Amino acid sequence: MEKVEEVSVWNKKKIIAFVFLVILLAIGIYFFKTKVLGNKSFSPSDILKSVKGTKSVKEENKTQENLNTNIQKAVREKIESLKQEVSSLNIAEIASSSPQVQKILNDIKSLEQIPQTQVKEICKKVCGL
Prior knowledge:
Shape: rod-shaped
Structural class: mainly alpha
Largest sheet: none
Helix content: over 70%
Number of helices: 6
């Protein structure tokens, strides 16, 4: 058997076209980096610092904390004002303001006009015994 030698032929047109494309690609990458991305560094720490949203998330957390403290202060102030109002209330006014209590008070006042013999029976009716 005969040995067949393969001879590779380099085509000069293909080599020149390949080199030209590589140069165009390098120029395109450089243009993209400088014009579109600007003169920014691509180190990992710089990328993390330049990511949009990291600052806003921190500010949002601070805003949320401030909002929570403001809400807590408002609730405490409201509770304190309610405590002061409750402490200044008159118990007699509270007891007499209910319609049911008003009815009972009126019934008791009307007992003064009834003779002593019937008062015991009426008291039992009023109190529900």
